[in-house]
Design goal:
The structure holds 2 protein chains of 2 kinds.
Chain A (H helix, E strand, L loop, with lengths): L7 H5 L7 E4 L9 H9 L5 E4 L5 H8 L3 E6 L11 H9 L3 E4 L2 H12 L4 E4 L6 H5 L3 E5 L6 E6 L5 E9 L5 E2 L9 H9 L2 E9 L2 H6 L4 E3 L6 E4 L17 H10 L3 H13 L4 H8 L1 H9 L6
Parallel strand pairs in A: 1-2, 1-8, 2-3, 3-4, 8-10, 10-12
Antiparallel strand pairs in A: 5-7, 6-7, 8-9, 9-11
Chain B lengths: L6 H10 L7 E4 L5 H20 L5 E4 L2 E2 L12 H6 L4 E2 L2 H9 L5 E4 L3 E2 L5 E2 L2 E2 L7 E2 L6 H7 L2 E5 L25 H4 L7 E5 L3 E5 L6 E6 L5 H6 L19 H11 L12
Parallel strand pairs in B: 1-2, 1-5, 5-10, 10-11
Antiparallel strand pairs in B: 2-3, 3-4, 6-7, 8-9, 11-12, 12-13
Helix pairs in contact in B: 1-2
Classes of the chains: A alpha/beta, B alpha/beta.
Amino acid sequence: MREKVMGLREAVALIKDGDTVAIGGHTLRRHPMALIHEIIRQGRRGLKLQGWNNGIDMDMLIGAGCVASVETSYIGISAFGLALNFRRACERGGLHVIEHSETTGLDMFRATVMGMSFFPTKTPLGSDLMRTNQHLTEITCPFTGEPFAAVRAARPDVAIIHAHTTDKYGNVQLDAQRWNDQSADVLIGKAARTTVVSVEQIVSDEEIYRNSLLTVLPRKFVTAVVEAPYGAHPCGCDARYDYDLEEVEKYYEASKSEGSFKAYLDATVRGVADHMEYLERIGVERLMRLTRTRVARP
Amino acid sequence: MTTDYTTEELMACAVSRELRDGELGFIGLGTGGRAFIYAVGVPSVAIALAQHRGVDFIAQYGVKLEPRIPEVPDCFTDANLLAWPCRAMILVEDCLDMFRRGMMDWGFVSGAQIDPYGNLNSVCIGDQKQPKVRLVGAIAQTDHCAHARHTMIIVPHERRVFVERVDFISGLGFGDGPGYRERYQHHGGGPGKVVTNLAVLDFHPQTKRMRVQSLHPGVTREQVEANTGFALEFPNPVLVTPAPTPAEVELIRTQIDPRGVWLQAKVS
């Protein structure tokens, strides 16, 4: 059987300059940050990003100069407010933004997963999403004559997502204790030509057999898996660890100017050799604190 | 007992009076500060108040259905939100499809701009290609506005929010007036009520323009006009939004929101 375990560097090398890259996660939840850091280290350029609900993931890539366009329904830093690198890039001009609602942002992946070239929906009709998003167009239902919008199917070159576990063959699992906004990750993971999944832990074949109901991406959908514990940091990872508000605040403050953000990236991302060194800089104590706040239902 | 309530308590009571037995309403969770109080806190307390009156109202917070509103965690981290007791956690695609099927009675929404026809904007100020201010994006606002039987729009009453024309329609109201929504045969009815810190507003059934339904106690017509960037129709005589009763205030402070998570955004 084909084994799919790769190192972070090798997996990110599958992404080429100018690729369309779909990113999993939701607000400050389970974005594949270890993979994103490595994309920045490798200096990718001209990426066309896709997602359904994004934040620090896309904002960081934009601030690092990796991005030509974004296609999603949201880029913000949750309770902190606007995503400031994204904001600066838009206001300066030159960053192409393809606007979606949450549903049309999912529909573009759903269409692909269902083997269709478009997905019909009424959601964006009459709004300025129709006017500005070239992947939406008005159609007529052949049965009822009713107007619909067709959402063009997305076929990303690469999808990057972060999950809880996998075996070495790429059968990717999510814990039962998870926030279901992440069901979109499964659609994103199935829609791409190349799917790279970082996980908290690589587990044995037996473990996967024991919990097969938790396998959300069977290996047929998966190109490469990378073990990256705390690989969503500073985002949260369901019940495994919380988001690191201290780090997100530091990020948010740094993103207030181009200069301070470059210094942040140099210190936090570009200046560290790999994910393990990144975690060492965050420190065991802080990582354990994020883990210890897990709340178990009585 | 006439002044012992906050504006947010008044707003929650005003929203609550619109909620009916058997209805379903959708609330998003992703904001902080005042935006949180308006988009999340006020509708949550309104729903809990209605439930205390015996109204069987189902609250849907994204993928989470019927969490126990008074047991909301102090801190909205995922671990806490996962542990917040609820009756169902559904897939996100299912949760959004409930909008599209026309099951949602109320969409509780907010926005950075609203115009006289109830169109909402959370995308940008200025031109979308190179905006003056880039905002977060349409999120689920487009879905609320297209599909909910009505939207309950909860926004701060300010001139920069109430504008003659929104710079980007991310949430469709009545478009440019009568007939606009009908052209697209949207299942949702569009804007129902607008609740602000100054007034309750609704939309004229023929012209589809926003009008004042009632002013909050102590608020003047001039105050509302000074904070609205377009002409509003006022009822004659001008009605006053009913103040919360002492029992409602007591219920909010002791049972529904004793820690101030909802209406004071004491959330970390």
